[in-house]
Amino acid sequence: MPIITTTTPMLMTTNEPDPAAVRGGMAEDEAAALYRLMTWLSPSFPVGAFAYSSGIEWAVEAGDVTDAASLRGWLAAMLTDGSGFCDTVFLAQSHRAASEPGHAGLKEIAELAAAFVPSRERQLETTTQGRAFIEIARAAWSSSGLDAMIAACGGPIVYPIAVGVVSAAHGIRLAPSLHAFLHAVLSNWISAGSRLIPLGQTDSQRVLADLEPVVAATAARANAASLDDLGSATFRADLASLRHEAQYTRLFRS
Prior knowledge:
By secondary structure, the protein is mainly α. The protein has helices spanning 19-22, 28-40, 56-62, 68-81, 83-99, 106-115, 120-140, 146-153, 159-169, 174-196, 201-210, 212-224, 235-243.
């Protein structure tokens, strides 16, 4: 009788972890993009955002914002019908222009964004943060194309343009850049409100949670918008930023 022999294949094992498993299935470029957005748009990133209230300080002084509910309403309007929407449109347009060969149209977008600011203090706020964002991001995260994009802007770079240009230079997709930017701006507004009203930490987080769908809707709307869709209807917030300049007692620079 013939003898039949069989062999069992040996399973090779390694002590090296699977990179995809370590990242939870996230691709390497996605992980890098998330890491950078979380860093650049974190409250700890040193652009000096904590020093500005975007007129909220006057709104509290005038009695327009007195508690969590009124702060939420004020900020929802700023997101949907004011600087929140307009700034994300500028971010989207600058990101697309910076990603094009030759960066066509980037200078015009940057100039329009700088001219769109309604008050001297808001101009100081957005240009100071824009300059700091560019300088720190360029110093810590080098990118071969960033200098050319900055040069194409041709002048002072406001904060949303800075975020759009740096994100484009690092190949970070537009949609998460818009969402992260709005979250950073909203978080700073809530931080200012919590110190001025004042609010407790839990109430502040409730406001942030309540405005999550507003942020998502504003980011999606800005992503689909053109420069022709720009417009603001938050007159009271614009007046607040103007009147803050002459406010007698101030904690914030805007």
